[in-house]
Design goal:
24 helices, alpha+beta, 663 residues, seven-stranded antiparallel beta sheet, 6 domains, OB fold (Dihydrolipoamide Acetyltransferase, E2P)
Length: 663
């Protein structure tokens, strides 16, 4: 059995990973409900075992990140996240504790719907919208001012006389249901990946690098919280909201001031019935102490205010028929099942697919084609089958004996592994996934070779192996859907440019199991050439301190495979580089020097500048410290530049960077 300390550490790492997927990439892997369950389990373990509790635990800080894609913005007052209550009883307990602190049974509370969008902070100077930022990690957000300014129902200038010199407020950026459906239809027509839900659509739209795209998304904004104001006093939350309305902000119509839990409870019932009729998604209600003086007395933890709580609605559920279980083949041959459902409306969208995770999950649920199943959009994210509501099939679904794509052999690598895999390296489904990975940005970085292009070249049988990419011509692309002359010409140039990528990129592009970008760089730096990798033994890989047993074994098995040799030889004949860029000689300005990149560079993309630094023996770090040697600063450089000045780290611009390169 896993010991408590290891379990706590594993939960922390898992939550940190899911935070990054949810807040930074807008690509959640689990539902809000599942995430909340992980948080609550970690909170319980930390309370029961305080010896292993840490101040940096995900349970003690605001979830979220300030992405390096935008300039950082320090909030005037921290933007905290709310504690959640998942039942009427939990909400009543919070209410009673709060009232008891003031010995005031008539203490007022403000209650309003919790809009399912993305939090944002707005700063007005002398009544003019000056800064818009995401919540980020609570202390520091992302500068999305130009995107914020495209929101039509948000005033750029406050509609009052004598506005305060400084006014920071918070609210929720969201997209309504009809605009969300139109957006996904448009994305689908263009062959793109649809947004999973309105929250992801709002977040992805707000964090676009091109504000014109944001403007086309019809985002909206509801103000909900007070940040900081100079020269103006508010006594109550309701007074603050009324002031915001006078300033030109839109408020939610469903808003109530309550002085008893009975009134709160009635409002909960009313909104639960009304939620589906709203033109925007809500996932619960927010209850706040109305008096700002009382809010200050109650204070906050590092993560959440004590004067507010979010009552979360239960997960939405529906029953429907499971018509088919499909097996899908991934890039590494892993075969995973998914459920095809009779379409059913759920949470504002129509659900026709649900995840089944793996074949052991099918066995656990005892589910098969034809069964009536209960499905759930826990947290309004990923539909899943909760249980069989009515058993219609009398047979048990068995994992495929043959690959659904190529008909090849299917096997488990060992008894401990859950996943089944197709072991045919030339499987068409695997090839499609491998091809998409090969051309991706962090691999061979062939700009313009997206999913739509991959599907078209495969449909027209232009590609049968990876090296065929380098035999494609202008005429192969110019007739493709949505392609024009310039686009075809640019893609051919991008393909040619990719031949120059260093060995580390090629290793990662080949999609070796258990070998990511970092291990690829380490391996390329250690072995230098592709031929050296083919000659390496398991012991040679294990001698590299940063490589573990699993990665070492995977590398050895990959490079001793005859198909791998054939694939690599074809790529070499096509002109793809098989060597790692040599690092600089002793005495180079870059050797063992650490660089941090910040701001917008004109001549170099950040990835290209980082690649140059690494090729010349330097290192690239994400944050500034006393060990940093150079900060390469472009336009709109923010906190990293300030940190460099504080620590007296040498700051260089692009011209000085090029001088170093030439030296």
């Amino acid at each position: 059995m896993e010991n408590i300390q290891n379990l706590i550490e594993r939960l922390r790492k898992e939550l940190t990973r899911h935070n990054a997927l949810y807040y930074d990439k807008n690509e959640p892997e689990i539902s809000d409900g599942e995430y909340d369950a992980l948080v609550r389990e970690l909170e319980r373990l930390e309370q029961e075992h305080p010896l292993f509790a840490l101040s940096k635990s995900p349970t003690k800080k605001v979830s979220g990140y300030a992405s390096s894609s935008f300039q950082p913005i320090k909030h005037a007052v921290p933007m905290l996240s709310l504690d959640n209550a998942y039942s009427r009883e939990e909400t009543a307990s919070w209410y009673e504790r709060t009232v008891k602190k003031f010995n005031d049974s008539k203490l007022e509370f403000v209650i309003e719907p919790k809009v399912d969008g993305v939090s944002a902070s707005l700063t007005y100077l002398d009544g003019i919208l000056t800064v818009g930022a995401t919540r980020g990690d609570g202390e520091t957000g992302e500068d999305v001012t130009e995107n914020i300014k495209t929101i039509q129902d948000m005033p750029r200038k406050l509609k009052i006389e004598n506005p305060p010199n400084f006014f920071e407020l918070r609210g929720e950026v969201y997209i309504d249901k009809s605009d969300f459906e139109k957006l996904n239809e448009k994305i689908s027509c263009l062959g793109g990946q649809k947004f999973a839900n309105p929250r992801n659509a709002a977040s992805g739209s707000l964090r676009q690098k091109n504000s014109q795209i944001t403007a086309e998304r019809n985002l909206s904004f509801f103000v909900h919280s007070f940040g900081k104001v100079d020269g103006k006093q508010f006594e109550k939350q309701s007074e603050f909201l009324k002031y915001c309305q006078d300033c030109g902000f839109k408020l939610q119509s469903d808003f109530k001031i309550c002085s008893s839990f009975g009134e709160v409870s009635k409002f909960i019932d009313m909104m639960f019935q009304k939620r589906d009729s709203l033109n925007y998604e809500i996932d619960g209600l927010v209850i706040k102490v109305n008096s700002l003086k009382s809010q200050n007395e109650l204070g906050s933890t590092n993560k959440s205010p004590r004067w507010a709580v979010a009552f979360k609605f239960p997960s939405k559920q529906a029953t429907t028929k499971l018509t088919k279980i499909r097996a899908q083949v991934g890039r590494t041959g892993m075969i995973t099942p998914s459920a095809v459902l009779d379409p059913v409306p759920l949470g504002g969208v129509t659900i026709s697919r649900a995840t089944l995770h793996n074949f052991e999950e099918i066995e656990r649920l005892n589910v098969n084609e034809g069964d009536i199943v209960l499905i759930e959009r826990a947290g309004d994210v990923i539909p899943k089958i909760v249980k069989v509501a009515r058993k219609e099939s009398k047979v048990f679904f068995k994992p495929p004996q043959k690959c659904p794509s190529c008909g090849g052999e299917v096997a488990k690598e060992n008894e401990e592994e859950v996943a089944y895999r197709c072991i045919n390296p030339e499987c068409p489904a695997q090839f499609r996934r491998r091809l998409m990975h090969f051309v991706s940005r962090n691999a061979m970085d062939i700009d313009g070779f997206g999913e739509a292009v991959v599907d078209q070249v495969l449909e027209k049988k232009k590609l049968r192996k990876l090296s065929d990419i380098y035999r494609l011509s202008y005429n192969d692309f110019v007739g493709f859907e949505l392609f024009k002359d310039k686009k075809a010409d640019n893609l051919i140039k991008a393909i040619a440019e990719s031949k120059k990528r260093p060995l580390s990129r090629l290793i990662f592009a080949l999609g070796i199991r258990h070998v990511g970008e970092k291990v690829s760089e380490i391996v390329a730096k250690r072995f230098k050439t592709m031929e050296a990798l083919f000659a390496a033994s398991l012991e040679d890989f294990l001698k590299v301190s940063e490589i573990g047993e699993v990665s070492a074994l995977s590398l050895k098995e990959f490079f001793e495979n005859a198909t791998t040799r054939r694939v690599v030889e074809d790529l070499a004949l096509s002109g793809v580089s098989m060597t790692e860029t040599e690092t600089s000689k002793k005495g180079s300005q870059f050797e063992e020097r650490t660089f941090v990149l910040t701001g917008e560079l004109e001549k170099y993309a950040r990835e290209k500048a980082a690649e140059i630094i690494k090729s010349l023996g330097g290192k690239v770090a994400s944050s500034v410290s006393k060990k940093t040697d150079y900060v390469l600063a472009g336009a709109k450089a923010g906190s990293k530049l300030e940190k460099a000045k504080e620590l007296n780290v040498k700051i260089i611009d692009e011209a000085e960077f090029e001088e170093l390169i030439n030296i």
